[in-house]
Structures are given as structure tokens and as C-alpha cells.
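Explain this one:

_____
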Amino acid sequence: MPTDASKDPHSQPSPSAAAECGCDAVPAGAKGLAPLASALAALRDSCPLMPAERVAVSDAAGRVLAEDVHAELDVPPADNSQMDGYCARVADIGDGAWLPISQRIAAGQPATPLAVASCARLFTGAEIPDGGDVVVMQEEVTLREGEGGTTLAWLPGPRTRGDNIRVQGRDVSKGNRLLAAGTRLDAAALGLLCGQGASHVLVRRKVRVALFATGDELIEPGQPLKPGQIYNSNRVMLSQMLSNFGAEVVLAPLNVADTFEATRDALASAAQQADLIVTCGGVSVGEEDHVRPAIEALGSLDLWRLAIKPGKPLALGSINSPRGDTVRVVGLPGNPVSSWVGGWLFLRPLLGEMTDCSALRELKRLTVRAAFSARTAIRQDHLRVTLATGSDGQLEAHAFPDQNSAVLSSCAGAQALAVIPPHAQLNHGDSVECLWLER
């Protein structure tokens, strides 16, 4: 897949940004268009880091750790049985032996030292008594009555020391790092914390986001459409994406009047309570595009024309906050597909930067076989694809048949973005790099 590798002399993208998105040069014929890596570098520049706060572990799902967490306990805290069975000494079993049952141990009950030449009946998770060094599963054991009302168990041998025993600290050893700062807490991570008895954890505060989808033509679902109107799909779509990326949407007005004054007042109000403002549409130069002059009246704005498809226009700016700091502004195109792709390419890494979460900063990259063909012009394309295993076991990318930037159905069910460099001819069966849309 040949590309023009000439460098933009005015941009110096960071290596990580360039590696993430695969396009660090302005392609031939794309004068005035900026590479994606340059926009990402500008997006990340001088990002505020969210302060830390302590929250209950039960409320910490999806939050990002603000400090390393070290284990204070061994897990398991003592040797225990990994199945229902009988515990004995390997030496007492030999090639097989009848041993009296000297105690019964259930999970959660204390064990006493194992008497010589005896066995203990025990259950999954039960503590191994001192002296015991093997567990024989109950299906292999035969029982019979012995003298004096005792019960004898036939334990076949020979056995191997340690069989069916989970040793102390096998999962987690006291003092070791349990979770690293920057980890986004999923179900397994929460389980590890609870296994240490932790009730609270120090995490980054969620990024508070104000979201605006502008345009008098937009109305909310449930209302009858009038001529010239369309339903607002961006507000709920982007709100859900931001939430999935760990943000808290604190303001998402249904309607902002399409005037300069209303837009300016809405942005000024948002700057009082948000860490980040995201807008959709209204950043062009038309007479009805009020977002751009409103942002410039309250702060500063840079408009980017990117060498990517979909989503060529991108606005990056800041608004002076009454708190004395500045609030970042990201203006996405109003086209729903462009907004959706922009959410993955720009909002997700920005939120990762603001919470110091490496998992959010970069989308995972996969090289798979293309089950489609494509040709690009001067812009890098991001095709919406699903992933499936081919008949020969290789992973394949299947492109949605209609990749037009107005076709939001191409995003529903998409599992990855296939990155096609500019001036490239991709044939069926070629290798293609995909950005995995990890939800």
C-alpha cells in the first residue's frame, strides 16, 4: 500500500501520536491539510490532569487509579484445597493405605494439625491442616467402617506432594504491586481490591464534560418532524461514548438557540462547571455558524483541516473559566459518522491524557487480512469494519458496504476502524491495519 512519505515542515508530531494513528505526513496533493498526528499532539499539549479523590470500591468501576496499590495480604491467605476430598501425608499413603478420618474441615473453619497416619475430610477452599501435603479427590476414595465406630478411607497411591493444593500467596503475594497507577478499574481489578479487604481507593476525578450539538434544524426524538428538521442523533450518541470513556457529562442541553448571544452564554455557563467542552457542528465560517465566534469571544480557537476521512474539520480551543483556569474545547463535525469516528480518534485519547490512563490514550492496533478492497485519494480513510475468523483460521476485516460519511448505520456494530493510507490501493486478501474499538 504505497503512500507519500513527505513530511510536513510545519508539524512535529510526537512519536507516540504518530504511531497511534499511522499518518504523520501530509499526503501529496493535500496542501492545507494537517496530518492526524499533529492534531493529536496539539490536543494533548498542556492537558490538565484531573485531581485525585478517594471513593468507595463499590463505586469505582471504570475509574482510573491515581496511585499504585500494593497487596497487604497473601491470596490465598493459607494453603487450601482446590476440590472436595481427603488430605493426608504422601508418606502415610505410600502405594495406597486405609487411613482413619481424624477431622472434618469445611471452608472458613480452622484446622488442627493432622494426626500421624490419618486423613482429614475437607471441602473446596478449606484450609490444609499442618502436616498435610496432598489432597485426594473424593471420587478416588473408598470408605468403610473401622473399629470403635471410626471411618476409614482408602487413599490410592502413590501420590505427589502438593497435588490439588492451592499454596498460600499463589494468586497474590503480600507486598507485591497489585495494580498500577493509571489502571482503569474493571470487574477483575475491583475483585482484587475487595480480596485485599479494601473499602476505598484513590482514583482520578472523572472529567466533567459539557456537550453541545448546535443547529436550529435539530429536534429531539419523539417530536414530529417539520420540513427542514432532522432528529438530533449526536447528543445521545456522544454522551454515551463519553460515559463509556470514563467521563461525566454534566451539561447536555436539548437546544441552544442558533444565535451568537445564546451560543456564547451557553459556553460561558459550561465553562463554570466543566473541564472539557465538546461541540458538534457550527464551527465553520457560515453566517449561521456561531460556535466559532462565540469561542473566540471567550477564549481562543484553532481550526484544523485534517488529511483524514471521515472528519476533516476539527476545532481545538480553550475558554477562560471563572475558576481562573482554562477549559478545553473540542469541536467535532456535525456529521454523525464524523462525530462518532472523532469520538474514538480524539475524545478517547484526550480523556486518557486528562486521567493519566494509558489504556485510553491509544487504541489497540491489529494487523488482519482484508475481506474487501478499497482505494484512497489524498486523505487517510477509516473504514468501519467487523472482525471474523476466516475458513483458514486467520482474522479478517469485513467492511460495511456503504462507507459514506452520512451513513451512521456503518458504525452500528463496527468492531474496528480499518486504516487505509492516502494514495493506496488495498486489494482483497491484503494485510490491513485496524484500530480495535475496545468498549
